[in-house]
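Box 3.1 A note on notation
Throughout this textbook, protein chains are presented in two layers. The first layer is the amino acid sequence; the second is a token string describing backbone geometry. Keep the layers aligned when reading.
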Amino acid sequence: MTTLITGGTGLIGACLAEKLLALGEQVALFDLAPAEWRLGPLRQAAGERLRVIRGDVTSLVELLDAARDTGAGAVVHLAYVLGAESNASPELAGRVNILGTTNVLEAARLTGARRVLLASSIAVYGSDSDYPPDALPLREDAPRHVAQGVSLYGAGKVYLEHVGALYAQRYGLVVGGLRPSIVYGWGRQHGASVFAGALVDRAAVGEPVRVGFGDARVSLVYVDDVAEQFLALLKADAAVFARRRFFNTGGDTCTVRELAATVRRLLPEAVIEVTAAGERDVAGLAASVSDRSLEEEVGVRRKFTPLEIGVQAHLTTARARAGRAPIESTSPG
């Protein structure tokens, strides 16, 4: 069986592909602009088990061709216009995030792919201040107020969850997915986590870093954990999704200032300037989010936690990519 991953050469897609290929499976990466700099190691390890398809999720025809040509039995949909970019380009966000998601589900239905996993987001929630203290950390049944700083993106994710449920109920598809917190990892170029990626990536190679909203609280999850969670949902019994369709990834809660301090502890020579202007959150995103449902119902637990373990993995990857020596190891636990 082939797993088709849309947005497949992005941060999460490439990491998930690596894990699937390591299991000996076949993977097809569908991307409007494939990131060749991420594909080298995957191609080298996988050979003919990896296919890269240039395509646009706004074209149902292109998705149908990709699903049929690869014999996709499952689809992981990761191709979206992210965060503030959605507010800046509402027409594009509507086509990619709304129409694109519907096209993915329709292509799966028409070609016989039985499972579709979608990337929702903690943007479906409001900020922590929108909830009573005893509701934190947020579980999946929390009211979906939508993060006000990325309102179009968050609203698109609410739609995504509803249309996914409809395809499951009407057509018998197995549909589920994750509500990721801010995902960080080497090479992040888009979305709300760009600040985290830039902070760690630049510090790793000795460049000075300046970051704002230092007192804002965020929920951060390392990309490897998110890829493992998607992998677990690909393998989970279909009955899991009859009980709950979308799961929080969870994440480590910290301020941006604390993230910078973590980088400095691991890399004392890092030069990081943190400023603040009274922000309580980033784009209205929740900062306290629980992943208990994933652990209890799917049996997958984050390994790159607490924060220092994930940041160390990020620094190690960034330094290796730049030909620099690794920092002292701390095993994930």
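The mean pLDDT is 94. The chain has twelve helices and twelve strands.
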